[in-house]
Amino acid sequence: MLKPSTTVFTGQVDAVPLYLKYPDGPRDAETMMIDPVEKLLYIVSKREDSVRVYTTPLAYKPGDTVILTKRSTLFFEGLRKQITAGDISKNGDQVLIKSYSRVYYWKRKGKEPIWKLLMTPARELPYSRERQGEAIGFTIDGTSYYTISEGVHPQVYHYKIK
Question: 144-147 long-range contacts, Cβ below 8 Å, gap at least 24?
């Protein structure tokens, strides 16, 4: 089990609102990722047999309402296939997408758009199912990843990417 850091952030961060609108009606989505290569915000829908991938550029003014661009539709197999989380590595060369039961991994070649990369076959990575696992994130160096469930006192899981 991973021991939590004792470092505490005590500074202030000013949030700036951005209002997002789907081009094809409201969606339930829990996956939001930032691509440092394309400078795009990615949203992946959750509760559909074929999830939808949307993007918008990161250039906006506070309070803007942005209509997302639908980029692709993805199909994931298995039970509990709802997409609950995702992450793009710090340097933008790796992508993780997580459902309740699986973790999918892609390695980017060059500056290929993430939405195109997600349409290629994924590699499934190790994952111990959690009660309600809804978070995933790369380590800062991109050699491993963490998952955690919702709830009181959830355990943090750490996995190496091999």
Answer: 145/87, 145/96, 145/103, 146/2, 147/85, 147/98, 147/103
Chain position carrying tokens 């758009």? 113
CA distance 6 to 88: 26
Q: What is the per-residue pLDDT across 95-127, written as a single tens digit (0 to 9) for each?
A: 999 998 899 999 999 999 999 999 999 999 999
In the chain, % helix, strand, coil (3-state, to 5) comes to: 0, 45, 55
C-beta separation of 149 from 155 below 8 A: yes
CA-to-CA distance for 162 and 65, rounded, in angstroms? 41
142: left (phi over 0), alpha (psi -120 to 50) or beta: left
Q: What is d(CA 73, CA 86) in angstroms, rounded to the nearest whole number?
A: 16
pTM: 0.88
- Look up residue 16 and give its two tokens: 């700036």
Q: Mind listing the domains of the chain with CATH numbers?
A: 19-160 (2.130.10.10)
